[in-house]
Amino acid sequence: MEARTRRRVRDPAATRETILDAACNLLAKDGLEGVSLSAVAHLASVNRGTAYQHFETREKLIEATIEWVSDKMFRAVFGDPATLGERRVEEVDVSALTDRLSEFAMENPEIGRVWLQQVLASPDPSQDAFWREYCGSLRRFASTSLAVPGIDAEVMSVINLAGVFFWPVFARAHAADEGERSELTRRYTHEILRLSMYGTMSAKAFPDVAERLSKDFAKD
Amino acid sequence: MEARTRRRVRDPAATRETILDAACNLLAKDGLEGVSLSAVAHLASVNRGTAYQHFETREKLIEATIEWVSDKMFRAVFGDPATLGERRVEEVDVSALTDRLSEFAMENPEIGRVWLQQVLASPDPSQDAFWREYCGSLRRFASTSLAVPGIDAEVMSVINLAGVFFWPVFARAHAADEGERSELTRRYTHEILRLSMYGTMSAKAFPDVAERLSKDFAKD
DNA sequence: TCACTGATCGACAATGTTGCTGGTCAATTG
DNA sequence: CAATTGACCAGCAACATTGTCGATCAGTGA
């Protein structure tokens, strides 16, 4: 009859990681609603009590999960935070960065959206490393001659990130297999680059809008 | 002592509306997580049993709420569906449409995001009237000479809608009063128009990206 | 007027979740 | 080696939520 469930070997750091990883997967699968301590602990094969030992409350767990996601994302998109300082703005390969971000978003659905939501709602988004880096590099880029003048880096960050994190919702729902999925990823990166280069409206066809833009501009 | 709670006068249609309206408000306040039948019924001052009479299950209620939101949004952005057919593509005022959409998104936070999420995840987004109209008009616009060539209407719809529905998360968290909020709305509409007209990257500074774009293009 | 439909309500069972507590046991440290 | 720490676990209490049922009672139509 035996069969007592084996007691987990004592390794707090690893346990914490296990729990966060489980929370992350659950987040990607069912969204925020699906992240209950019961479900997370079960998926991580950890006792609920143990989970509470590591994270005081559900809120704290979610908060920690978001940070964990942010870090994962940072590495996937910008590489190792340690070696970051050395690179130059001019050297940043916009096109490759977009590729990596789209890739990550597609592989980790849901969590990017949840992360963005939390970060934007927080009193100071730049507390978050990924946001700081993303928005910051966009701002630096905007100040170079490589960029069109008049870019609002904050708004552009929101637009870019919102788009890249929402597209997988559509893509994953409409792609039957891996192949179609990467095709849809390609479609997205193509379009975002095309948009960045050429916009959507033929400038000479819209003198009124152009005028409105320059007027808004004067107000700033 | 008396004080029996008055029984609601019999008016199923109005009751249904009341419930949906409550659900909608709750959605805007607390997101999907906040929409429990208990909370909705309470807010609507309706017995929970009554709510179940109108909506078989929580899922059904949420589904109905999303449709209701879609309809509200449609009217706010495109006007009355009945008088829609008459207008021409060329007559559509892009700039005014953007204004109305941003306005709506700011006034009704959360629900637009949830709506977009549901619609994109559904097997056939064009079942939804708002999506059909938005994406369709973008497609029609793309085929005119007013537009830059090569636009992917579906991707652009996602980018635009994701952006406009996410911006309020940032804006509402960082605006102290009504005035700051409308200023932030203005910032958004300005930037999205600017982006549509001029993009972000100086085309001549990025011959490699331009080449990649034309290559991708050839593959299609 | 009177039966009938169905909108509304109060209560109940089943289930799930949160957070807490007290107990066990492995590792560390003096 | 003994004592202490704290990681881990099982179970409890409080509460929320879902979905269901049977009992009313207001309109409606015969």
UniProtKB/TrEMBL annotation, chains A, B:
Entries under InterPro entries matching the protein: Homeodomain-like_sf (IPR009057), HTH-type_TetR-like_transc_reg (IPR050109), HTH_TetR (IPR001647)
Organism of origin:
Novosphingobium barchaimii LL02
Name this polypeptide is given: TetR family transcriptional regulator
- The record places domain HTH tetR-type at 13-73
Key words of the record: DNA-binding
- At which residues is the DNA-binding region annotated? 36-55
Gene Ontology molecular functions: DNA-binding transcription factor activity; transcription cis-regulatory region binding
PANTHER family, alphabetically?
A: HTH-TYPE TRANSCRIPTIONAL REGULATOR RUTR (PTHR30055), TETR-FAMILY TRANSCRIPTIONAL REGULATOR (PTHR30055:SF148)
Q: Does the keyword DNA-binding apply?
A: yes
Enumerate the PROSITE patterns for this protein: HTH_TETR_2
Task: Name the source's superkingdom.
Answer: Bacteria
- Name the Pfam families on file: TetR_N (PF00440)
**SUPFAM superfamilies assigned to the protein according to its UniProt record, in alphabetical order:** Homeodomain-like (SSF46689)
Q: Could you confirm whether the keyword DNA-binding appears in this record?
A: yes
